[in-house]
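PROTEIN SPECIFICATION:
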Amino acid sequence: MTTCDYIEGVKREKTITYELSKELTEPAVLREVAVMPGIGEVISIRSAKAHLSGLLELVAIGREFVITSDGQPKARVVPMDAPARRKVFPGAAAHLRTMPMRTGPTGEELIRADRDGRGW
């Protein structure tokens, strides 16, 4: 950059160059994130709106966030390729083992008794 000084003629200003740090710096969005037990990393709706691009960059590398409004969880932001969270169904046999044993007549016995009672 050059400037013109009428007294001294044309002189050059020093240009200052800054080197970028090689260290990874923490994105501003991480300063707004809190951890809630049982929920995970949470961020308020205002902070999520203010830091949306940084939040999406973190989600793209695999992080998950819960967006809160008035302290209540409202939405979960997850990567597109993340598998859907589902409850694992242990199967009917495991469920039936938890049921109490029934004693009494079987269905076949009830039908036979009903037919016999009608006199057919």
Remarks:
- The CA atoms of residues 39 and 118 lie 61 Å apart.
- The two ends are 112 Å apart (CA to CA).
- The first strand starts at residue 2 and ends at 5.
